Amino acid sequence: xxxxxxxxSLIEPRxxxxxxxxxxxxxxxxxxxxxxxCRAMMDAVVAQGVASSEGGKRLRALLALAAxxxxxxxxxxxxxxxxxxxxxxVFQTAALVHDDIIDESDLRRGRPSAHRALEDxxxxxxxxxxxxxxxxxxxxxxxxxxANDAAGRLPNTSALVAAFLGMQREVEIGQVLDLAxxxxxxxxxxxxxxxxxxxFRWKTASYTTIAPLQLALLAxxxxxxxARRTALAVGExxxxxxxxxxDLIDVTGSSRTSGKPVGGDIREGKRTVLLADAIAGADDAxxxxxIGMFSSPSRTEDDVRRAIGLFSxxxxxxxxxxxxxxxxxxxxxxxxxTGLAPGARTALEAACARFVPDVAER
Length: 362
Hints:
CATH superfamily of the largest domain: Farnesyl Diphosphate Synthase
CATH topology of the largest domain: Farnesyl Diphosphate Synthase
GO molecular function, one term: prenyltransferase activity
Helix content: over 70%
InterPro entries: Isoprenoid_synthase_dom_sf, Polyprenyl_synt, Polyprenyl_synt_CS
CATH architecture of the largest domain: Orthogonal Bundle
Number of strands: 2
Number of domains: 2
Shape: globular
Radius of gyration: 21 Å
CATH class of the largest domain: Mainly Alpha
Strand content: under 5%
Protein name: Polyprenyl synthetase family protein
Family: Belongs to the FPP/GGPP synthase family.
Keywords: Magnesium, Metal-binding, Transferase
Largest sheet: 2 strands, antiparallel
């Protein structure tokens, strides 16, 4: 079994155990008892927390562990690093639970999103949605508890906690920006592309690639300034490339492979880099059509198919591929600049390549 498979086999059951323990609250540890009449609902929320944590690719945790090993993290403390990596994944689940409520998404990883599942369980839309919101909050506080405990068993304890909280803050800002960009005008595609890339940096790269690298470096004993500098150099271009590729999957992938319906961003009217590039590359008639389509309060299935076609015919898909390739080259250059030994460098490159498999395999 390869190292990645071994790590994944450690991560999966550990996340389930940590979520079940932390999301359930301090009852039995000096905390107040859950009233009997409320027990079934509380148990359902915790069970949904565990279920929502299942099925991910664990890219962030695997990157954190690969970076910890590459930068010489001590084997004796690797169990604590596993928990820190799990904390990142639990935070992602919290963010996705909230994201699905904001976006009114029905699916997540091919299954009903958390709030939809809880709506079905309760038979009440308002209560189910409220429970989904609180589940996201429970997971967000649970991941801090997990990270805090792990940091106490690693070097740079206070810097690790600060970095984890900084990651959360950046994502929260990114979510605000993600909503703000939906009000961005469509008649300036260059400004729209820059705004969308800014959202990618704050909302996605911050916890997907930058934080896993920064936390791994700190846990391996790197000085805080050096850890941040290296994490940004490697993680920022990688995180942007990852989100660009994810947006491409939305128009070129499938529900089976992505766990979400194809064209979901188009249905929601999201202002993406793909849309900005399509508007920039369109002729006058196509530009008016795209602006009208994405200015409308809703889009039909015909609109979705037409938008996907325009994203391709205007060269937007090709431009995204070129952006991803350029960012991947920047990532490889930054890894080379770390001075890692050849074996460690190759292992870190392989962990990073999993975020952009299409371009990395070329």
